[in-house]
Amino acid sequence: MTMGMKEHFDSRAFQEAYHCDVPLGAFCGAHGTVFRLWAPTAQAVALRLYRAGTGECLLEQVPLCRGDRGLWTFTADKNLDGLYYDYLVTVDGKTRSTADPYARACGLNGERSMVLNLSRTDPEGWSDDKAPPLPPETVIYEVHVKDFSWDPASGVPDAFRGKFKAFCLGGTTLNGDGKHPTCLDYMKELGVTHIQLMPVFDYGSVDEGGDPAEFNWGYDPVNYNVPEGSYATDPSDGAVRVREMKEAVQALHRNGFRVIMDVVYNHTYRRDSWLWRTVPWYYYRQEPDGTPSDGSGCGSDLASERSMCAKYILDSVLYWAEEYHIDGFRFDLMGLLDVPLMNRIRRELDRRWGGGEKLMLGEPWAAAETAARPGTVLAGKAHLSELDEGVSAFCDDTRDAVKGDLWSEGAAGFVNGGGLDAARLACCVKGWAGCAEGGAKAPSQTVNYLSCHDDWTLWDRLVCTGDPERRFQACPPALLRQNRLAAAINFTCQGHLFLLSGEEFARTKGGIKNTYASPAEINQLDWNRAWANRDLVDYYRGLIALRMRLPGLCDKTPEAGKRVLGVTAPAGNCAAILLDNTGDGPWKRVLLAYSAAGKAVSLPLPRGEWEVLADAASSFAWRKPRVVTDTVPLKPVSALILGQR
Ligand code: CA
Fold first, then answer.
1. What is each CA distance from 83 to 29, 230, 396, in whole angstroms?
2. Higher model confidence: residue 351 or residue 434?
3. Which residues 6+ apart lie within 8 Å of 94 measured at CB?
4. Separation of 342 CA from ligand 1 center, angstroms?
5. What 3-state class would DSSP assign to 207?
6. Which one from 81, 147, 220, 332 is the annotated catalytic residue?
7. CA of 165 to the centre of ligand 1 (A)
């Protein structure tokens, strides 16, 4: 039976008979409320209306009518705004209760959907809300809502700690000392341009009515089109989480940030999801023997190549962009989604909001092989050339080259003693575009990073390779030098730039590799450490500010790689890269020098006068540059950035 259904769902005949391109979900207005559910294999569907999101408060149960193409509808002649609902769906004689896969609001823990007039969730001034202008470079700062303000030292009032509301607060300082900015004001000083929120859709691994200290990263979607309740001040009133997430986006926009959402369309929390209960198996990939495909490591790979699943994902992205003014999307395990869908999302975002206005980036890999319909081209690293130039991928090559292979905690990269040749570093600088190891068509397809929420923080990796006693809290100068060099390389690579929040203050998770279910205290941003390591923060600040003045590195066109004019190796474990920097900035040429050598090296300079823009001591040297000619000393484990007018 199951095997037969798999072929049926994969078939063109099924798509032609049942693809249904109408808005799905519940929509209320002054004249009534309409419910639309796509359930082509159902024999019966009933709607249940409730007064609340939980508990025994059934008001009414009514049957839906089956129409064309598997669409079931019910129209009430009243405005049901504020009522909760779910469905009873009968397939093959078995009746299951399910919330609405297209729910846009829900009650506690997302168990029931909610009819909601969305306009009443708009914060004041929402119709005028606009993203700040596009900066010369994209610098993405990855933040988890709870990490951001859970530390009491954040200065955020207790009621807002770990909530969307914390993003709306200006003026917070370290332990409320009035001197050292935290949270929003801290990020403004840092100069990052895009705030990437780790999952903020409704996920299942935290009990919204439980202990407020419960923690999870949230890569386990329950309601794709509803914000997570544990980040709201009241998770039981479905309107509150919607309003508070909009308030957070509005506050970030007003403070000069664009907002990226981390979206997880590759799997669901459980396979027994609303999608599964509504149309069993349709949204999920299966192996030829009928067992669930497991390319996600969660046993619930979504079948993005099936037309109604593709519609579901596309509708969801467009909904967040439209209703919540989201400026970009980071696709978790993009390598499980298919290339035609990713390109279609790109086209639709460009068509509605203008080319390049909304960012798209993703992980170009999967946890394991997935059982997609034969012939499906997946959006992994091997198929970057088939993806639109406006779909970017995390560059694991540069990440591993700089600090060591991801999978082994003892593995070292260039900065921590692993060695590397100059040609390979030059390839990093090109954002791996046009390099044999990469595959990107242009730096627009590359996201450079050293650390993200996954795996060891950059600091923890440097401690693993540099301190046999693994003192993660300590900050010895030798490791801080490695950190600075790593950052200098990352911020001088072509392509978009990305960092895990706190990387700039030597964030540690005590050497724990994946902290998705570790306590909030391990995951939280340690605001005391952010100020204890202010020198390192300032080094990142200077690199970010300098980057905005280097058009040769910000160039995202397919020709950007040609700006690399020459590559030399002035000594072992050193590389110097000459770059054409013509464009909107004072310096026509830039020389990048990186040294992981244990002693000072004399760097020969091309003819003429060169200005020191950044060196081992400061990344703000460009503000009052000193001039050098002929040769310049390159200190052990450091970077030099020089500019010529
Ligand atoms: Ca939830």
1. 13, 21, 47
2. 351
3. none
4. 26
5. coil
6. 332
7. 17
Count of beta carbons in the 10 Å neighbourhood of residue 407 = 9
> Quick check: 438 pLDDT over 90?
no
Residue 518: inside a domain, yes or no? yes
SS3 of 439-507: the string is CECCHHHEEECCCCCCCCCHHHHHHHHHCCCCCCCCCCHHHHHHHHHHHHHHCCCCCEEEEECCHHHCC
What is the number of structural domains in the chain? Answer: 3
pLDDT over threshold 80, residue 3:
no
Concatenating the DSSP letter of every residue in 222-254 gives EEEEEE-GGGSS-TTSHHHHHHHHHHHHHHHHH
In the predicted model, what is the mean pLDDT of residues 62-85? 98
Domain annotation covers residue 616: yes
CA 170 to centroid of ligand 1, rounded, Å: 27
Provide the percentage of residues in the chain whose pLDDT is more than 90.
Answer: 95
Centroid of ligand 1 to alpha carbon of 499 (angstroms): 26
Q: Is 332 a catalytic residue?
A: yes
Q: Which of 89, 121, 153 is the last residue of a domain?
A: 121
- How far away, in angstroms, is 227 Cα from ligand 1 center? 8
Q: Tens of pLDDT along 384-404?
A: 999 999 999 999 999 999 999
Confidence of residue 1 (pLDDT cuts 50, 70, 90): very low
For the stretch 282-310, what's the b/e string if a residue is b when 16 or more beta carbons lie within 10 angstroms of its beta carbon?
A: bbbbbeeeeeebbbbebebbbbbbbbbbb
Both tokens of residue 474?
Answer: 């300590």
Distance 591 CA to ligand 1 centre (A): 50
pLDDT of 333 > 80? The answer is yes
C-alpha span between 69 and 21 (Å, rounded): 9
Q: Please, which residues have CB within 8 angstroms of residue 623's CB and are 6 or more apart in sequence? A: none
**How far apart are the C-alpha atoms of 199 and 67, rounded to whole Å?**
36
Nearest to 139 by CA among 455, 633, 503, 508: 503
Collapsed DSSP state (helix, strand, coil) of residue 424: helix
Report pLDDT for 434.
Answer: 75
Report the distance separating Cα 44 and Cα 155, nearest Å. Answer: 54
Q: 219 CA to middle of ligand 1, Å?
A: 11
Contacts of 434 (CB under 8 A, 6+ apart): 440, 558, 561
Mean pLDDT within 589-611: 97
Active-site pick, 363, 389, 397, 615 = 363
The three-class DSSP label of residue 566 is strand
Domain containing 501: what range?
402-434+474-645
Verify that 104 and 250 share a domain, yes or no. Answer: no
pLDDT at 433: 85
pLDDT score at 432 = 86
Question: Which of the listed residues 121, 153, 181 is the one where a domain comes to its end?
Answer: 121
Per-residue DSSP letters for 288-306? TTSPBP-SSSSS-BB-TTS
Q: What is the mean predicted confidence (pLDDT) over 634-645?
A: 98
Interval 444-463 mean pLDDT:
97
**C-alpha 111 to ligand 1 mean position (Å):** 9
Cα dihedral across residues 318, 446, 297, 375: positive or negative: positive
- Please tell me the distance between residue 10's alpha carbon and the centre of ligand 1 in angstroms: 31
